[in-house]
Amino acid sequence: MRKALVVGIDDYPGARLKGCIHDANTVAELLDKNADGSPNFEVKLFTTVKTKAELKSVILKTFNDRDDDINLFYFSGHGNVTESGEGYIVTPDFTRDDVGISMDEILKIAGLSKARHKIVILDCCHAGAMGSPTVISNSAAFLEQGVIILASSRSSETSVERNGHGVFTGLLIDALKGGAADIDGEVTPGNIYSYIDKALGSWYQRPVFKANIVRSVSLRSVRPTVSKAELRLLLEYFPQADKEFPLDPSYEYTTTTDTPNEKNISTFKILRRMQLIGLVEPVGEEYLYWAAVRNKSCRLTGLGAYYWTLIKNGRI
C-alpha cells in the first residue's frame, strides 16, 4: 500500500495564512492518481486541524502499518525553531511554551514505521531543522533506513508564500505534474529536489533534501516523452553505441515531393522525441531537421549511450 497524509493549515489565531489549504488540496489530488488516471496513493486530506493532539494522532496512524510500501506525510503551515535549533510544525492551539509537534518527534515516528519508504515533505518556515541534530545525544535527528525528508527551507530560513501559494509547493506541484519526471516518466523525491533547487536559485529560500535509502522510489507516474518500447529501438537504430544513424530528406515529410516514406518519417518522429530528452543529437547541425535535409546523421549522446547499455544488458 501507498498511504499519504496531506495536511494544510491556514487558520492560525493572529497569524493566518492564505494558501496552505489550497496547496494541500492540489498536492492531495496529484498524489491520489497517476497522470493516466491509475490509482497511486490512498490519500487522507486533513485541512481542519484544530489541536496538536488530533494532528499527532493522525500522524501516528499514517506510520503504523507494517506492510506499506510508502508512508508519506505532507505539511503546509507555520513552522517554528527554538533558540537551541529544535524545529516544530505549528498547530492552531499553539501557546508560547507549546507551539506544536516537534520535528524530531515526527522523524522518530516515521523512523519506527515498518514501511519500506517513509517520506516527510514540509512546506513551513525552518523546515530544514528536521533531521538536524541539536544535541549529540538526540538520536531522533538521525535518519533510519528508508526515511526521506524534503523541506522547503533551511533551518534558519522562512518559507515564502506568494500570490496565495507557497513558493516551494508551487514548484512541488509542477514537479509532480511531470516537470521532474525522468525518462521513464517517474517522479522521484531526488528529482523533485533537483527541480526545485534549480528553480529557486541562489537568492531565495533553499530547499533541503535528506535521505537514507538503498533504492529510489517514485511518487507519481506521468506519460514519458519516449515510451519504453520506443526506447528499446535505440539498439535497432544504433547497433553499436558509437555508430551514427544516417539521415536524408526522406525522413522529413516537409521536404518530399514524391510519395512520403512513411517508415522513415515515423522513425524520424521518434528520433526527434529522443533528442528532446537528450538521448540523441545531430552531427554537424544544430537541429535534426537540417541533418536530414542535408544528408547528415545523428548519434547517441552520453546519456543515450548510458540507456543503450541498460537496454543491451536487459535492464529496460
From TrEMBL:
Domain Peptidase C14 caspase: 1-180
GO CC, any one term: cytoplasm
Lineage: Bacteria, Pseudomonadati, Bacteroidota, Chitinophagia, Chitinophagales
InterPro entries noted in UniProt: Caspase-like_dom_sf (IPR029030), Metacaspase (IPR050452), Pept_C14_caspase (IPR011600)
GO molecular function: cysteine-type endopeptidase activity
Pfam families: Peptidase_C14
SUPFAM superfamilies: Caspase-like (SSF52129)
A GO BP annotation: proteolysis
Protein name: Peptidase C14 caspase catalytic subunit p20
